[in-house]
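thread: overnight batch results

M.L. [08:02]
morning all. the overnight job finished for the chain we discussed friday. pasting input first so we're all looking at the same thing
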Amino acid sequence: MSVMVFCTSQPLPNNTDSNLTVYESCKDLNEVLIWYLILQFINIFVGIPANFIVVWLIRKSKGDSSTSDMYIFHLAVLDILFCLIFPLELANILYLTNSGTWYVLRFFYGMKDTSPLLLSCICLDRYVAVVHPITFTKIKDRLHRRALVIVAWLLILSFSVAKSALGNVVDFDKIYMGIILVVFAFMVFCNIAILLALRHSGPGRDEMHPVKKRAFNLVLIILAIIVFNYFPPVALFPFQECFTRQVFKCYIHYIAFGLLNLSSSIQPVLYLSKAKLSWGLDCCQTSKSDMQSTEATENMSTTHIDL
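M.L. [08:03]
and the structure it wrote out:
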């Protein structure tokens, strides 16, 4: 049996020639690097304003927010911080050869690497709301959610500091792969469980309440985007030994993390589109009893893209 090889979550300087920039070291294989930079530009012009709007909306509707909005708020803040480092990242790729900049970049890369911890909190919240609604009503207060947010941030910052200081240590990379594999499996499990619960909650196999059907379609989209954003590193990184060092450094890293980093734009855009749809639905509600009967399912439909 071949040995599974792990790698870092972001490209590291080429230690064989520290006088070369990242772009120069990948000059023969720079197509994917250019593609990666384009995706990062999208995060600057779409991700930052969209996440700021998400933060503003959640703060504005503080008294009438969903139970998972607390996690979404902190995730949006994390994505804003990550997107703001792009000017330094761009300078580092094209011009800088000083290894000191990597300490700063690795810290923010570490934050993005562990952002799925907040996503898993959202998934857990929605999973309990749909699959175990009675339990959900008993723990609907926000005390335990604040505790989860604090624990998540402590883990995120601890990992980021460790990555900044120890990012060049080969064995340290296994920690990241362990995190991404476990969290990815957990997110997929939660969303599939939600889909199955919604699918079998109607009076007949081919019948589903319109609100539940909208929620089902939304979670299906969420599951597809989770796979789109997070499956590439899960699928590619364990097979580092199958690629040459140059191909892995210049292609595989940027393919996987270009898609993963794009979640900083996709997540808030879907949340905002969902918020607009929910506003339209609220305007069309005419029956108070209908609203009460579908409250739990509508609450689930407020789930953010980052499930």
